[in-house]
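Supplementary material to the annual report.
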Amino acid sequence: AQTVTQSQPEMSVQEAETVTLSCTYDTSESNYYLFWYKQPPSRQMILVIRQEAYKQQNATENRFSVNFQKAAKSFSLKISDSQLGDTAMYFCAFMKTETSYDKVIFGPGTSLSVIP
Amino acid sequence: DGGITQSPKYLFRKEGQNVTLSCEQNLNHDAMYWYRQDPGQGLRLIYYSQIVNDFQKGDIAEGYSVSREKKESFPLTVTSAQKNPTAFYLCASRGRVHRSEKLFFGSGTQLSVL
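Predicted assembly:
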């Protein structure tokens, strides 16, 4: 069974600085998707970035980038130039590819606070 | 606009009562999911459905029931057997955007016990 672990329950970062959130996962699958979702105080789930396991290139979305290490089963999120609006819970998630509409597993989350 | 609609936004349950949370999507997605979120915690999978008239238990299905009679709808019933139902409930569907899959979420239902 797949599992997703986020070892940092809480983190803080100064505005305009860079922060990295960690995620590790366990699977025997060779192809899959990994996601980072953001949940601000409104509790709406917002997709931040996604990575397909067969792609070696790390995904980037503006100030957000990932460091995907497939062999180590590691998927960290780097937020550059942190902004106050980045304050939220961040969840790492694992999804098998579309060959199987199976469970989508979330990690326990990291609460990120951006300090002015 | 296409999306997922959850209702109601807030729901109160009396002891011994069953309550049903609604989840509707117009995205034409086959797979749908129900998650429970406790304060400051992650998302735990209750039930999921891969196709109409089929669903599977997730990690915390006890005290909950679902149905999937239509592709658009995946209601969740919180039964009286669920002794600690106070939580935030999120519904999601799975679909493709720009040749890549993702989960689309509703805005959630906060369930509280009176």
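The longest strand of chain A covers residues 88-96.
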